[in-house]
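thread from #wetlab-drylab

HS: before we spend reagent money on co-crystallization trials with uracil, can we at least see a predicted complex? here's what I'd submit
DV: go for it
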Amino acid sequence: MADKRSFKERQAALHEIADRIRPCTLCPLAAGRTNAVPGAGRADADIMFIGEAPGFYEDQQGLPFVGASGKYLDELLGKIGLTRDDVFITNVVKCRPPGNRDPLPDEIDICVATYLKQQVEIIQPRLIATLGRFSMALFFPKDARITKIHGHPLRANERIYYPLFHPAAVLRNPNLRPAMEADFKRIPELVAEISRSSKSDDSPPPPPPQQLSLF
Ligand code: URA
């Protein structure tokens, strides 16, 4: 997974992708958006959060997770001593679906193949935390249930894929709060674990499991 690109080169590459995302017209979501939302954060972040899609406030501002879910995400990051500048935050699709409907399979396929995949390749995060089921479905089997697998890290390709509830789901259902907070608190130890193991392991990485073929 070693990427020889410097921090500046990664930043430039992410800016170049963002410059392609903002005027993108590859799918019908372009017609209803105010601003596309490429994502934001450190170009060499160890931790990448992938949400579902921009909502009303994100669409207005062109930034990810700036509404109520984002405030809760900031609070969770604070509990593990991080701010959003320490991580990279983006979404499966970069434009707000009308009326906040679910993104459609074609919209997801185009946006992931054209933009998200490249963002992951540039940032090379040690841990990808999926927020909610659409993001989870990119890396985990289609029949995986978030209520079952949240907080269960999957180790593959020298990286940890970590399924979490979507912050909006937790805000809607406060019973999920203790689980969300316990899952979140494990992030630093998981990042430390994968950093140690990728430094000490000289053997070639195992082939990616089927469900990770997207990345
Ligand atoms: N919900 C998401 O999934 N992403 C955002 O950016 C905001 C809310």
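DV: Strands lie at 40-41, 47-51, 88-91, 127-131, 154-156, 159-164.
HS: ok that's useful, forwarding to the group
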